[in-house]
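User: Please predict the structure of the protein below. I'd like the answer in structure-token form so I can feed it into my own downstream comparison script.

Assistant: Understood. Taking the following sequence of 386 residues as input:
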Amino acid sequence: MYGAELIEALRRAADLAGRPGRVGRPSSHEHTLEFFGVGGDRMRAAGCDTVVDAKDLAVVGITEILSRLPQILGLYRHLIAEADRRKPDLAIVIDSPAFNWRVARQMKKRGIPTVYYVAPQFWAWRQGRVRLLRDYIDKALVIFPFEEQFYRERRVDATFVGHPLAELPRPAIERGDFAAQFHVDPAKPWITLMPGSRVKEVRMNLPTILEAAAQLGTAYEFLLPVAPTLDRSFLMSLIGPEEITLVPDALPALWHSRAGIVASGTATVEAAMMHTPFVMVYRVSPLTYLLGKPRVKVPRFAMVNLIAGEEVVPELVQQDFTAEKVVGKVNEILPDGPARDRVLEGLARVKARLRVPQPTSGPAQDPADRAADIILALMARGLAGS
């Protein structure tokens, strides 16, 4: 989800610095950056030639990956063939470690400098895989504050650039306008439901979330943002007769909601940045959980809790993720009082930790800008040495 912002930041930085170079395919314009690779609609809109659609790689769980493996291998080979044809000056891989470390390995074989933006969370599980970054990555740009030390201690050149979501502004749309646009009652408290961004995790998480919503009752309006990787019709088929309002954007829904029920992942950071108390939930298939649990190296699942070093928001995972427990935890954080205040104070601390201090002189920079400066400097060194 961060690729489009990075492309825009790279263009801005290149224009300001007047640096020559090419990321992606060769360009006839000396100062023009061009991009190709894996992406979705937002990256296409930012000017990336997406030779592989990110939706085709959006799988979750061991069993789903195995069933889709031939297709994923075909997409991987197609991407590498395009790299051989276009001969990029630099490769940038973003998140998705199972796919991207293999891409990085192929770039290393071809002598192409490679940057990892939003580095893999190997600190959480399979820590031995840090060697993949050490072997194949020239620079890791990390978005969580504790990651820089973790990777540097393991001889990976890593720099914390800040979390892109930490600089999110307050959504511009007012509550009344949002209510009128989506036909929800502004007088009721709103609760945002975020079951995940992939089909399989939505199937695993949404039924229990809907059951919890039904138990919470008609005193609330329930908003469900439609992730770009999901079809509205698919969500409607799961929701059925429940009174749930589908909305296109998560941030305004979270900002105007009293609370959230949010699946583990980036959405938990979005909720924290919108200062919305929430309950984190998650469920995977029994086989995936059985195989994955022994490899987990962290004491908590919610990213905001890991950043804070304590339980800021409740976590309900696997067998603990029941509608009754969700309702109980949501009812604790809905009313004003000590429980809600503790969550709000914890979310504010998390937001502060995700930011990097701004320079004392010059324009303010967001994480994508800082990442772009590092990437262009690395590319300039590579071009100068070629």
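That's the full token string. Confidence is low (pLDDT under 50) at residues 19-30.
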